Amino acid sequence: MSITIEKVSYDRPKDARILEVVLTEWFKDPKDLNLTSPNMPYPFSFKKWVSMTYANQEIESFVIKSDDWIVGLGNLMFLTDSKRAHAFHIFVDKSYRRQGLAKKMMHYLETLAKEENMETMSLRVMPKNKPAIILYEKLGFKMLGPSKWGDMMMVKKLV
Question: In 10 A of CB 156, how many CB atoms?
Answer without folding.
Answer: 19
